[in-house]
Amino acid sequence: MFEFRKNKYFRFSVVAVCYLLWIIWVGNFWLLPGLAVIYDMYLTKKVNWSFWKSRTRKNSVLIEWLDALIFAVLAVTFINIFFFQNYKIPTGSMEKSLLKGDHLFVSKVTYGPRIPNTPLHFPFAQHTMPLTVKTKSYLEWIRWPYKRIGGLRQIKRNDVVVFNFPEGDTVVIQNQAQGYLSIVRQYVEQFIQNDINRGDSVMPRSYYYKKARDFVWNQYDIVIRPVDRRDNYIKRCVALPGDTLEIINTQVYINGKPQPVIPEMQFRYSVRTNGARLNPRVVEKIGIPEEDFLQTYTPDVYLCPLTNKNADDLRKLPNVVAVEKMIKPVGEYESYIFPHTLRYRWNEDNFGPLVMPAKGVTIALSLDNLAIYERIITTYEANTLNIRDGKIFINGKEAHSYTFKMNYYFMMGDNRHDSADSRFWGFVPEDHIVGSPVFIWLSVNKAKGFLNKIRWKRLFMIIR
Q1: CA 19-22-24 angle, 5° bins
Q2: pLDDT tens digits, residue range 209-227?
Q3: Is the pLDDT of residue 289 over 90?
Q4: CATH no. for residue 291?
Q5: Which of 70, 373, 397, 449 is the most buried (most CB within 10 A)?
């Protein structure tokens, strides 16, 4: 009945049409000569494109397995680049919305797939060869510029998004869990404190930044990674290009309006009892893992990340006296919070207002706001920037304004007091966007026993 499917002309036609549609989607008509290859593979067969296989005699089982493996690797690589890939939640920054050990189906089609910056790479390795610590899994002989193919839609506010870590361009091999710039800033604070402790004069911060950078480069192994080879992160997009974001006492406001309630979002709370210990079984019944509770030096006080519902349920327990959200006050400066300057005395809970850069928008540039836009100008949009005699120079010319070449987003984790996100390292450029997680196809809790490791209720759960 379906014998026509074996007809070489039918098979050629199907493959050729699919290839043409792919070329139109990609928008690169230099790929049209590939039709000649398809024509030869299915019709004329002048060239043995599968050179590892013999056309004249039966191949061994090993060759057949090799052929199947090569096809599988090429097919999965193509699918991962243009359609979807797996992503595993490595940390608790999105709890309780997403849990550590969740495996996600991430759609590349939603926002449009990117053409790889580094197309020559070892399959399925993000940036490092398996079983090695610092051997690159990619070659930079070919470096393609950023290009995104048309997707189904644009990013919306409160979408959960997978993206490349913006500060992952420079990586300290010995401490890859922490961003290079964060490590440098820690040494800046340490060197300043050392001078204060010794009674020495405190130098300008630029002096300590140079000293810290030199120290890190001399003490550690450093690697530079292109955009598509940086670590993948997952957060919620809270602000779009052109939006004004402000955080007041943990409440996020976008363009003056409060962010819609996210039921599973959690904050760190102080839980005080009447002296009696919290019963782990009771606590777990209301959806709080026992390991989340950290008992302080005061026996009746616990610290714990809680959702609004968790907090309300705890308040109902007879031995709980108070459940209070821990909030840093306005004006309490934290050096690890973007843009890392005393000009902006922001912290995790009180931040902004900050306007999201948008493609084509021109902003006035001054020494006062340069800290906010410096990384955009230099790292993300590849300009040179210098300050001479109190004046700003971009690409050698004095600049009083700057026009953005890309759109930028603000990402935050739902576990608001345990998430390294845009509050710490700033904007996410559009060329760092990887895709949209659609559903959880597997969820594993390593803390549980063998039979209880899989969280069955989370399988195929839609991500919102």
Answers
A1: 115
A2: 999 999 999 999 999 999 9
A3: no
A4: 3.30.70
A5: 373
Whether residue 356 contacts residue 344, with contact meaning beta carbons closer than 8 Å, is answered with no
Q: Which of 62, 81, 100 is the last residue of a domain?
A: 81
Pair (257, 233) in one structural domain? no
Task: Tell whether 340 is covered by a domain.
Answer: no
Q: How far apart are CA 40 and CA 17, in angstroms?
A: 15
CA distances to 366, 400, 458 from 390, rounded to whole Å, are: 9, 12, 56
pLDDT in tens, 13-72: 999 999 999 999 999 888 999 999 999 998 998 888 888 888 778 888 898 899 899 989
Whether residue 101 is found in the same domain as residue 224: yes
Residue 243 resides in a domain: no
- The answer to whether residue 244 is domain-embedded is no
- Looking at the fold, whether 114 and 214 belong to one and the same domain comes out as yes
Alpha helices, H only, 320-395: 370-375
Examine the domain organization and report whether 435 and 371 are in the same domain.
yes
Question: In b/e form, how buried is each residue of 283-312, taking b as 16+ CB within 10 angstroms?
Answer: beeeebbeebeeeeeeebebebbbbeebbe
Yes or no: say if 343 and 362 are a contact pair by the CB < 8 Å rule: no
Residues 73 and 89 in one domain: no
| Residue environment code for 188-226, b if the CB has 16+ CB neighbours within 10 A, otherwise e | beebbeeeeeeeeeeeebeebbebbbebbeeeeeebebb
Give how many domains the chain has, as a whole number.
Answer: 3
Interatomic CA distance for residues 434 and 83, integer angstroms = 11
Q: CA 438, CA 106: separation in Å to the nearest integer?
A: 6
Q: Is residue 354 within 8 Å of residue 244, measured between CB atoms?
A: yes
Q: Which domain holds residue 384?
A: 85-237+350-462
Q: What CATH number has the domain bearing residue 92?
A: 2.10.109.10
What distance in Å separates the CA atoms of residue 164 and residue 425, rounded to the nearest whole number? Answer: 13
Distance CA 432, CA 376 (A): 13
232: left (phi over 0), alpha (psi -120 to 50) or beta: beta
> Would you say 25 and 150 are in contact if contact means Cβ atoms under 8 Å apart?
yes
Whether the model clears a pTM of 0.90, i.e. scores above it, the answer is: yes
Q: Do residues 113 and 148 touch, judged by C-beta distance below 8 A?
A: yes
Question: What token pair was written down for 158?
Answer: 């409160």
Q: What is the pLDDT of residue 258?
A: 97
Tell me the two tokens of residue 443: 């969820």
